[in-house]
Amino acid sequence: MAIDIGDKWLGIAVSDPLRLIASPLATVRCESEEAVLDTVDAYVKEHGITLVVAGLPRSLDGSTGQQAVKVQKIIDHLSSKLGISIACQDERYSTNRAREILVKNKGRAKSTRTRDDAVAAALILEDYLKAHNPPGSDGNEFAAND
After folding, report:
1. What residue numbers bound the domain in which 10 lies?
2. Is 145 among the domain residues?
3. Structural domain includes residue 23
4. DSSP code of residue 58
5. Cβ distance 22 to 15 under 8 Å?
6. Which one, 84, 115, 117, 131, has least CB within 10 Å?
7. Domain count, the chain
8. Global pTM?
9. pLDDT (tens digit per residue) in 59-101
10. 124/146 Cα distance (integer angstroms)
């Protein structure tokens, strides 16, 4: 499962059991750290997740900015609360890529904000899966439902 943590919205995506395909799952309004923690915990339990990939917002030059520090703090708290592995994935451009996909696929000039976040989470998960699931692999080196 991947999450895209924003100031007001939490995008959530999941992979198939072989960890080959990432799909948007939900966007949930979460305006506090507690809301993020509770929401992620609920989805982890509901879907039997054993690994969460969290998007980490880096500056264009790759440095850690104020938003990345804030998100890292939430990730640290999630790790303590969930008791499962949490991996960080660079999320630069994920929201812009999500908007481009939505506009292209829907033929609209504007996309829906809530859908942007779930699609961005799917792109974060897709990037993670590509980096950790080499071409030609069937994904069996991973556990199902992550």
Report:
1. 2-132
2. no
3. yes
4. B
5. yes
6. 131
7. 1
8. 0.79
9. 677 777 888 899 999 999 999 999 888 999 988 666 666 666 6
10. 13
